[in-house]
Amino acid sequence: MSSNNYEVSKPINVELDGSNYIFWSQCMEDYLNGRGLWEIVDGSETQPADTDVRKLKEWKMNNSKIVSWIRSTCKTSVALSIGKATSAKSVWDKLKSTYLQTDFARAYQLEM
To answer: One Pfam family, short name please (predicted)?
Structure first.
């Protein structure tokens, strides 16, 4: 897991509005992969046991950064739909289940 010493309030210039999920998710995934943090979102890196305090603290900090970055790149109405979720994976999964089908349907209609 990577930890960066700099903070970014808005990591990408794409704002998820509900109709652009595919593009937004690709941009966010690229950003998170570039920082070694995508594994927290896809669930392959889970929260460490409470016995390893240093790793747990780093994981929680990175998870919180990701949730903050996701919220900061969403329109207010989309961000509100996330609710009070604090897990990067659960936030990502919620957005995916809500907006992926909508975006595919929109893309299909544009091709017709």
So the answer is: Retrotran_gag_2
